[in-house]
Amino acid sequence: MKDIRVKELSTKDRVKQVEEQFRIWEATGDKVTEEKTRDEIRFITISRDYGCAGFRIGDNLAAALNSTQQEGLPPWTVYDHKLVDLVCRDHNLSRVLVENLDKQHKYIFGDYIKGLFTGEPSSIQVFKRFAETIFQLASRGKVIIIGRASSLITGKLTGGLHIRIVSPLEWRVKQVAAYENIDAPKEARRYTIKNDRERGKFSKYFLGKSLKNPAIYDMILNQQRLGLDGIVNLILEAMQMREEMKRS
Prior knowledge:
The protein is α/β, with parallel strands linked by helices. Helices cover 59% and strands 10% of the residues. It has a single domain, classed as Rossmann fold (3-Layer(aba) Sandwich). Helix 3 crosses helix 11 and helix 4 packs across helix 7.
C-alpha cells in the first residue's frame, strides 16, 4: 500500500490550527472536569516506528473528527515536538492552560515528575518544560500528540487513547527512501535504523522506559497491512467503542 505520498499540511497551516485552538480555549475558558468528559476520548497519542506515517495518520484523523464536530468547539489539532516547542515559547501557558486545569491533574503531574528526577542538568530542565506542556495540552483535550514519549508522559491521565504504529523494517526502509529521496538502499536502511534508535534513546534517557512495551498502548497497528485509511478508521471505531463501554 503506497500511502507515503499523502499530502501533508504546511508548517504555516499547522501553526494556524494551533492558534485557532488556543483562541477558542481562551474564549470559552471551560474547565476540564472528569464528570464533564468521563465518556469522551479527550486526547490521542501516536507512537510509531521510524518510517511509519505518524503525522499523516494524525492529520487524517483530525480531519475526520473535525468534520463531525459541533461548531464553536475547539478543533482537534495535531502536535509534534516542533509545535509543542512553539507553544512553550510563544504562548502564556499559565493564562491559557494552567489556570483552567483540574487540580487533580496538577497533582498527578507534580508527583509524577518529582519521582523521575533528582538532579536537574539543563537537558532535564528543558525536557520537564516540554513534558509539562504535553501534559497540559492533553489535559485540555482535543489534541493528537505525535511521538516524543507522549504516551508515557500522559499515561496517568484519564480520557486518552494511546496508539502505536508499527511495520516491518524492510517496508519502512522503502518508505523512508521514497520520502527522503535516498537512492542507495543500504543508506536508507542505516538512516531508518539510526532514527529508530534515537527515538528509543529519548524515552530511555528521560523516562527510563521503552516505547516498545505493548502494555503502554490501547492499540498496536501494522501500517503495511492496514494502510493509512484502515488505521484511521480503526482508531475512530476504537474511540466510539470506548465511549460506549463507559456509558454501559
